[in-house]
Amino acid sequence: MAWQWFHRLGSPRWFYERTGVWLPWLALASLVLLTVGSVWGLGFAPQDAKQGNSYRIIYIHVPAAFLALAGYYIMAISGAIGLIWKMKLSFAVMRAAAPIGAVLTFVALFTGAIWGKPTWGTYWVWDARITSMLILLFLYIGVIALARAFSREQVADKACALLALVGTVNIPIIYKSVDWWFTLHQPATIKLTQSSSIDPSMFYPLLTMIVGFYCLYTWTLIAHTRTLVLQREWRTQWVQQELAEGNRGGD
Amino acid sequence: MPSVESLSGIAPAASRAAPGFGALLKVELLLVLRKRADIANPLLFFVTVLALLPLGVGPEPELLARVAPGIIWVMALLATLLSQESLFRSDFEDGTLEQVTLSPQPLYFAVLAKTAVHWLVTGLPLALLSPLLGLMLNLPAAGYLCLFASLLLGSASLSLIGAVGAALTVALRRPGLLLALIVMPLYVPVLIFGTGAVQAAIDGYAYSAQLAILAALLAAAAALAPLAAAGAIRISVDN
């Protein structure tokens, strides 16, 4: 009986019906948290002693970078669950996670570049973390491109799951090697400000933003997965029913 | 025509260690040696692109010496990648691959045999050619031995990692660019430590650590990549 919830998860219908209830709450939570976090972080948190106001981009940059990396693992783990337990829903989660993760990686890179201009004097630096994020973006793009190349969804699912798993094994190796490469090619002019302890007045709004981003991510992931589930199961009776009801509701 | 009979000595020994491995190795080598254009093309690509480089960046010896390790490594990587597209292709198209997956021998060893042959006909010749290209690009004398050794170790990892991509895309009609897109990010560690070793050798530092890491990457790739590639082949064949 303990595993009942796990087997239920395999049913796209159960997932669709259950998550429909969660979605508004998740949307509300992320809206409140992100509004509070950004107003607090952008308007009320104190200025940084060295960077002035430009540091405030961390309120977007750090949560995006957190979730970009976590998103890859979410994608790979749901792919692995799909491969091992042949769970259709799990593949849908994996496919939904790929574009979201790619966008978050891009946001992290983009905000990092904007922050780099006033702080470092240049938009792009081959810093270890930036380079690792760029490679992560390529890993995401690889999974998305592979998914698009297959005409049959089942094959695309399995192939993407395998590629995501191979990428997961490689991510720590890539990160370590890029770190090593960076210390070898250390550019003389640039140094990341080592703030070992961030002041609580800056940290609490950041924490709010991180939690808000997690809510937003979960909401986006579930919404996207629901769309994929509808697309994939459109022949089944419950989807037809659902769509008919949705149409009636819209009238 | 190089003889394959010289291999018959190792084949039975390998067969005992891993069923089917020796036989497949022999067949693959024979097939590859009968189609020698496939061996020559990656090497010609490697040499041609490197010959274009001075035309692009200018012929100053100091500049060429500075970029030589990186450029030779990147081109070796591209040459391996381009030749990898056809790794499982003909076997997939004529149904051999399906037979191999159905055979009682583990698919792991079949993939390992194919990859080993791929390395023997691309990675090994690339490593052997690299000193000549180093000479053309004015590579400092201290770098030659290390360039050869790092390419020898690194290209084997590249072949193994690329085999996963080749197996994933074998069922697609035109996998070329897609294969590059999915495999390139996975090549990053090998490239970093390969060029790092050569750069250290040129600067007069010890480079055994980088070579040891390349060897470690190869050991990990030899253990894991054929497993992933075997899984990918099963997915592609079931298609």
Structure description:
- The complex is a heterodimer of chains A (251) and B (239).
- Chain A is built from 8 helices and no strands.
- Chain A is mainly alpha-helical and 251 residues long.
- Chain A has one domain (19-189, 199-241).
- In chain A, α2 packs antiparallel against α7 and α3 (58-85) runs antiparallel to α4 (88-120).
- The radius of gyration of chain A is 21 Å and the shape is globular.
- Chain B has 239 residues and is mostly helical.
- Mean pLDDT of chain B is 88; it is low at 1-5.
- Chain B has helices at 10-17, 21-34, 36-57, 61-84, 89-93, 96-102, 107-136, 144-169, 176-203, 208-238.
- Chain B has 10 helices and no strands.
- Chain B has one domain (5-238).
- In chain B, α4 packs antiparallel against α7 (107-136) and α7 crosses α10.
- Chains A and B meet through α5 and α6 of A and α8, α9 and α10 of B.
Give the helix level of chain B as a range of percent: over 70%
Count of spatially separate domains of chain B: 1
Give the SSE string of chain B. HHHHHHHHHH
Number of helices of chain B: 10
Number of helices of chain A: 8
Biggest pleated-sheet summary of chain A:
none
Radius of gyration of chain A: 21 Å
Number of strands of chain A: 0
Report low-confidence residues of chain B grouped into runs of 5 or more: 1-5
Q: Features of this protein?
A:
heterodimer, A: 251 residues, mainly alpha, B: 239 residues, 10 helices, 82% helix, elongated, disordered N terminus
Give a summary of the structure in a few sentences.
The complex is a heterodimer of chains A (251) and B (239). Chain A is mainly alpha-helical. Helix content of chain A is 80%, strand content 0%.
